[in-house]
Amino acid sequence: MQELGLERFSNDAVYLDLTPPSQTSSTSLSIDEEESSEAKIRRLITEHPVIIFSRSSCCMCHVMKRLLATIGVIPTVIELDDHEVSSLPLALGEEYSGGGSGVVPPPAVFIGRECVGGLESLVALHLSGHLVPKLVQVGALWV
Q1: How many CB atoms are located within 10 Å of the residue 5 CB?
Q2: Is 19 helix (H, G, I), strand (E, B) or coil?
Q3: Where are the domains of the chain?
Q4: H helices then E strands: how many in the chain?
Q5: Residues 26-81: pLDDT tens digits?
């Protein structure tokens, strides 16, 4: 897996190296080897129905994963390095942030290409009864 720029950790997280290929010796998952971190983040958001962008060893990300797992959804988790975290707001823009500021600090969860926000937003969505229908709508959960 490391030849693809992926590493698996004991907590079921997958680390994706988003640094440009010219700075790494391994090959990139991207077809376009000149793809920027922002473009990779946008692509990952469109390719996965539920994705969490996090920092390494983030306890809030662990809680997000546990909440989703109890519902029956296993999200894609991308752990970002500090230099990659700065690419997250740039990649979001208005299309993902609902016209807001675009600044979403990690961990940030996306469901169906829509930025839900952080842990508090995910829990609020769950407590309001809107999380399961949203997961069903994007095809991440079958009931």
Answers
A1: 18
A2: coil
A3: 37-91+102-138
A4: 6, 6
A5: 433 444 557 787 888 888 999 999 999 988 778 888 999 999 999 999 999 998 88
Beta bridge partners of residue 109, listed in sequence order: 52, 117
Among all chains, which residue has been given the structure tokens 């989703």? 68
Q: How far is CA 61 from the centre of its chain?
A: 10
Strand partners of residue 8? 14
CA 51/CA 34 separation, integer angstroms? 23
The gap from C-alpha 123 to its chain's centroid, in whole angstroms, comes to 17
CATH 3.40.30.10 fits 37-91+102-138, yes or no: yes
Report d(CA 135, CA 19) in Å as an integer: 31
Q: Which residues pair with 78 in a beta bridge?
A: 14, 53
d(CA 45, CA 34): 18
